[in-house]
């Protein structure tokens, strides 16, 4: 890697570290981080494939209350570097990303604990009306989150390709295969968590149908994407048609009711 690539990768890693706590722009997601690093290293295809695979694993990972999710930013940055530089497979990249996500989870808890000090200092500055100092406290806290991903990424970049390959070869096959299988299970769990949070039971048959098609057909991801798009369009058309029918029935019933009232009034006038 040249100097420009190293600087760009560190910038992406820093933005991913800050995005993992901001959550607004979703810059810490594997699909974003892996794609950008793959583009920088000249292997965009591998970056997209690895990012899409890791994205399915991390789909249901999120911070809820005091529960910290595994760190996708650190796992995405380092796993992409290792996979592209050592020319390993996506499966080995998943096996690397899973323990990295767990390590990043512990690291982000440590950094967030340190950030508490700057939060309290910000409260003190707020009581004094020093808004510039409050901005500095926010900036330092974000900088620590950026360094949380940048420093481990820089350490990996300092290692030679042979050293990284030797480290990967030292991992027993039973562990790498187990992590790959576990990663596949996490994908299903991630989708299940998202469906439970969406609370849309009427869409669950489509979810089950996708598994049946995957098990008994030879569809690839492009075919599944096209099939999902067609099913979504059909569902929206049927839903829109049902919504249009309901007001029409209500209008007819209201009109008939008003006509009945007019007829009753006319009959009363004739009787008088």
How would you sum up this structure, described in words?
The chain has helices at about 5-20, 30-40, 45-55, 70-85, 90-130, 130-160, 160-170, 175-200, 205-215, 220-270. With about 270 residues, it is mainly alpha-helical. Helices cover about 85% and strands about 0% of the residues. The chain starts with a helix and ends with a helix. The model is unreliable at about 250-260 (pLDDT under 50). It is a multi-pass membrane protein. Keywords: Cell membrane, Membrane, Phosphotransferase system, Sugar transport, Transmembrane, Transmembrane helix, Transport.
Number of extended strands: 0
- Overall structural domain count: 2
Number of discrete helical segments: 10
First-residue to last-residue Cα separation: 100 Å
User: What is the typical, i.e. mean, pLDDT?
Assistant: 77
Q: Main β-sheet: number of strands, strand sense, barrel status? A: none
Instruction: Calculate Rg over CA atoms.
Output: 27 Å
Poorly predicted regions: 248-258
- Beta percentage is under 5%
Derived from helix and strand composition plus strand pairing, the structural class reads mainly alpha
Order of helices and strands: HHHHHHHHHH
Approximate helicity band: over 70%
């Amino acid at each position: 890697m040249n100097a420009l690539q190293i600087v760009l990768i560190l910038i992406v890693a820093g933005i991913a570290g800050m995005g993992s706590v901001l959550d607004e722009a979703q810059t810490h997601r594997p699909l974003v981080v892996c794609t950008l690093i793959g583009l920088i290293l000249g292997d965009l295809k591998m970056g997209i494939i690895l990012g899409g695979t890791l994205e399915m694993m991390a789909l249901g990972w999120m911070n809820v209350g005091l529960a910290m999710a595994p760190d996708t930013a650190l796992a995405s940055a380092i796993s992409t570097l290792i996979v592209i530089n050592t020319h390993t497979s996506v499966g080995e990249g998943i096996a690397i990303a899973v323990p990295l996500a767990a390590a990043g989870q512990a690291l982000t808890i440590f950094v967030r604990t340190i950030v508490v000090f700057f939060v309290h200092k910000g409260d003190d500055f707020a009581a004094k009306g020093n808004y510039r100092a409050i901005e500095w406290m926010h900036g330092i806290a974000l900088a620590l989150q950026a360094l949380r991903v940048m420093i481990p990424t820089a350490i990996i970049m300092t290692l030679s390709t042979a050293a990284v390959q030797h480290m990967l070869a030292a991992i027993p096959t039973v562990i790498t295969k187990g992590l790959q299988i576990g990663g596949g299970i996490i994908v299903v769990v991630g989708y299940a968590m998202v469906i439970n949070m969406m609370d849309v039971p009427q869409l669950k048959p489509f979810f089950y149908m996708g598994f049946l098609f995957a098990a008994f057909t030879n569809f690839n991801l492009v075919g599944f994407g096209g099939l999902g798009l067609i099913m979504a369009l059909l569902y929206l058309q049927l839903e829109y048609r049902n919504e249009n029918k309901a007001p029409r029935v209500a209008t007819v019933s209201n009109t008939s009711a008003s006509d009945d009232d007019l007829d009753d009034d006319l009959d009363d006038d004739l009787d008088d």
